[in-house]
Amino acid sequence: MHALLVVAHPRTDSLTARVAARARESLETSGYTVDLLDLHAEGFDPRMTPEDEPDWTDRDKAYSPEVRAHMARVEAADAIVVVFPVWWFGLPAILKGWIDRVWNYGFAYGRRPARLAAKRMHWIGLTGYTEEVFVEGGWNDLLERTLKVGVSAFCAIEDTEVTLIHGAVPDTPTPAHPERILTTAANALTAFLTPTPTTR
């Protein structure tokens, strides 16, 4: 089995990057080979260009070489794991741009049978607010629906999980705090990767 691990944070020493590193360990322990896609480190340009704008009259449009290379990495993966900070109650611009440009018409959607239908996907987002504040504002439901339905299911990926880890930026940091975040993320991913008779 092969996994594409996508991380969207500008700092390699960030908590998000550490969660991604722990996710890689979990994937490899579960028997996956891992393709690490660090969007910032690889210099991905999230801006849409005419070359990559979908053409609703041509689902076989040849997109830019950069986008086609990313499409190939998505297509090669059995599982896609995306690790990101929640900024402004949504995806960072670089990650949203990756979805806009790469998960494009004729590739991720617009075909039957769907190319990505057999894949599994796990979104792991780190929020600064506590769970209570996030839930009270309705942001959990909004973000989960956007990712699980608006992206994954829209592209025929039904086996999808969204894990939001709250309180990534506590009012009073403690030495144990980062490990709690890392363990929560790793446990959620391991549970997702473990088949059960009733769900997999």
From TrEMBL:
**Molecular function (GO) terms listed?**
NAD(P)H dehydrogenase (quinone) activity
Q: Which Pfam families match?
A: Flavodoxin_2
SUPFAM superfamilies per the UniProt record, alphabetical: Flavoproteins
Gene3D superfamilies linked: 3.40.50.360
What family is this?
Answer: Belongs to the NAD(P)H dehydrogenase (quinone) family.
The answer to keyword Oxidoreductase applying to this record is yes
To which species is this protein native? Answer: Bailinhaonella thermotolerans
InterPro entries from the entry?
Flavodoxin_fold (IPR003680), Flavoprotein-like_sf (IPR029039), NAD(P)H_dehydrogenase_qn (IPR051545)
| Flavodoxin-like fold domain span | 1-173
Superkingdom of the source? Bacteria
**Keyword set includes Amino-acid biosynthesis:** no
Keywords in UniProt for this one? Oxidoreductase
| A GO term from the CC aspect | cytosol
Would you tell me the protein name for this molecule?
NAD(P)H oxidoreductase
